[in-house]
Amino acid sequence: MLPSCISDTVRGMKSTPECMACLFDQAIRTAQLITPETKIHEKIIRTLAARVAGMSLEDNPAVLSQHVYDVAAEVSGVIDPYKQLKKETNQKAMELLPRLEELVFQSDDPLKNAVHLAVAGNVIDFGINADMDVEKDVLAIAEQSFAIDHLEEFRKQLSPGVKLLYLGDNSGEIVFDRVLLEELLELEADVVFAVKSGPIINDVTMEDAEFTGITGITRVIETGSNDIGVNWEKSSEEFKKIFLEADIILGKGHGNFETLSGSPYNMFSLLKAKCVCVARELGVPLGSIVFRENLL
Predict the structure, then answer these.
(1) CA-CA distance, 227 to 143, in Å (whole number)?
(2) For range 85-108, the mean pLDDT
(3) This prediction's pTM
(4) pLDDT at 1 (0 to 100)
(5) Which of 134, 177, 178, 253 has its CB 3.0 to 4.6 Å from that of 92, i.e. a possible disulfide?
(6) Where are the alpha helices (DSSP H) in the chain?
């Protein structure tokens, strides 16, 4: 029988010194988005620096990154600095939706194409890559081959009625998730889509799910917190129950991989390796796309 508490069994991947350096890049990008005032930028960096001294590399990178956005909010009073960018990215991605659906549902293998487009959407991450062209960059990834491809293992488990928890990642990307969700529902999977309970970087919230129409096609729940990835201690009882009862957990993006890597649950990770630390953990070249079953 599997354990009933993630925190008893897994803490995700460990951090590295590169992760600490990355925190300051994230902080300055966020500070500049909040205000042009350099004094505020400086205060955010100095406050973060004081916290970094007490951080442990035993924690996963998502836990470390959480401090960046907590500090930025505390210093500036702005709790959702990416709000406008999220809105714009969702709008741009929604313009692509008819094209994405055509690419999937008129293909010989809709599931394969839907998975490929869903991971292509994972390039939309302002925490790591602030400069991107949604259409150009995303559709370029759709032509890339997977460095790790466990699609067939995933396909074999998609019997009608299978309980699948889909852990969402970023705004904009959620539109690409919608296409995969539509295909999973077509295959008669019982799908629940999870979003954050509050703003953190450009991660998806209920507002994004409503704007992109996902609330109209499947059940959507909140995790119970605004933490990057999954923070079990802060997760809601509803989220925990659905997580533990799921036959399959599909985790999108860095945050979900960083916090759930090594989990004893039946999980598939779908992401682009956008930093050297995650690429190293996965054993793939930087920039690779991965659809990996959690093999223990």
Answers:
(1) 32
(2) 90
(3) 0.92
(4) 39
(5) 134
(6) 17-34, 38-52, 61-76, 83-105, 110-120, 134-141, 151-156, 173-186, 206-211, 237-245, 253-260, 276-282
